[in-house]
């Protein structure tokens, strides 16, 4: 339901038990759309109004013939009856804008003029379509109660009084009942339309939320991937800056690591940006994402960068680990090694991976205490927050913290079914 439809709710409907949703009020009560101004009519509305006008004119002609054919009725009364009938038929063009006022006015007019009786019936039909049952019941009840008086005023000599009353009551009830049926059908259609509109809105919101979550996951992936590469760049660039007199072989090796890390970082960034532009959170179209089987390559890369890494893998078949679990374990180990390189350079790092199907996969990374004072690194702690969330989303858990000897340990468990 839109805000615009809410603003269209007429004040006459506030605080009533028969209050409808604003969309229903707008459709069933057109005069509430633009108070004080003529309502817009569609082509279908014009056709329906013209048919109602012709029907009222036809019924009025039948009534006028009946009145003019009775010699007991004076000519002045016949002329007044026909004039009232013509005015009542013309007033039907206001039935959409003023249904209540029209029904109230045509109640005594239809009683006094036989020519106007058809217009009075159509006004009751319009009232039942466009106004709630309580309003229709009051005005319709007055019309039904006055039927005996109407029949007495316009007595048909060829029909018994009781039969004439019953027939007129049936016509009145039929007009009101048909109007209530049309209103109920419109309410049902508008309710279904409003429900479909809400379903479309909810589906769009769910799609937007899924897209936002996918982009957040890509952002976390970007942090995990680029932090490792950029840390290598920072470490080796710092070594070249503070050790310009290092042996040529060491300088060449550091330059090679910088070049390779920069190339890998650009490649990873290009793939992530491509995924964001395509709006696809999947891994399709890029390089295969690393899993547990690629952990050996990560450790070798860290060793070539100068880290002391002891790697202990007790998983019989790393390729058998599910892709999501293996990728999560890889990112956890990668982030832990990056943190060890930033916060405890030169220390020995131990990486341990154990587990089996049905028991889960355990990843433990520990580094010994750093030597000397290490300056704080901007943005510290964000990677661990992301790892904790990643492990939780995979159905596992992650713990980390400093140990008694000053070292730092990270332990994670992931389900492997």
TrEMBL record:
The UniProt record lists the EC number as 2.7.13.3
Q: Which domain of life is it from?
A: Bacteria
Organism listed in the record: Streptomyces leeuwenhoekii
Q: Where is the Signal transduction histidine kinase subgroup 3 dimerisation and phosphoacceptor domain?
A: 215-279
- Which Pfam families is this protein grouped with? HisKA_3 (PF07730)
What name goes with this protein?
Answer: histidine kinase
Q: Show the InterPro entries listed in the entry.
A: HATPase_C_sf, Sensor_HK_TwoCompSys, Sig_transdc_His_kin_sub3_dim/P
Q: Which reaction does it catalyse?
A: ATP + protein L-histidine = ADP + protein N-phospho-L-histidine
User: Keywords on this record?
Assistant: ATP-binding, Kinase, Membrane, Nucleotide-binding, Phosphoprotein, Transferase, Transmembrane, Transmembrane helix, Two-component regulatory system
